[in-house]
Amino acid sequence: MKKLFVIVFMIGFTATLNAQGLGIGPVLGYQKAQDAEEGSLLGGGAVRMKLNQTFGIEGAILYRSEEYADGNVKVTNYPVMVSGLVYPLPLVYAAVGAGWYNTKIEYDYKVGLFEPDDETSQEFGWHFGGGIELPVGKNLKLTGDIRYVFIDYDFEQTPTSDKIDNDFFVIDVGLLFGL
Description:
The chain has one helix at residues 2-20; strands at 22-33, 40-50, 55-68, 73-89, 92-107, 119-137, 140-150, 168-178. By secondary structure, the protein is mainly β. Strands 1-2-3-4-5-6-7-8 form an 8-stranded antiparallel barrel. The radius of gyration is 20 Å and the shape is elongated. The two termini are 28 Å apart.
């Protein structure tokens, strides 16, 4: 009896996900923090589910890296982000959400005899933006969006670090394969 219940539940759950539009796939983009020396590529993956005609949710895990202070400070992080999506039009969406940023800050300089230690921390940030979601086939969608992320790294061991603005924007594209 338990096996029958599990089988019926799984069939119903899978049918519900298909009806609601679950997709998973890679994401590739460009990001640039306000005071970073230059922008860089980022990559990762996303899972998106359209709950109905108007609302959806998305989860993403990415990898990003940037440099500050003439290359003497390197920041690498793995953001885990969750976004709420609102579709005012069938192909256009607005996004707002939050992220947890597992961050490593590496210092490559000395101040006199002082050489700062690298740091690892977890930061919280939030974001907003918008984009488009284009069907390319029966079970394939092309996505593209721009998002602005607010995060406040604390470069504790860098002089004048309170003047570094590390909020950033991301322009990305992705492919979502329907499940």
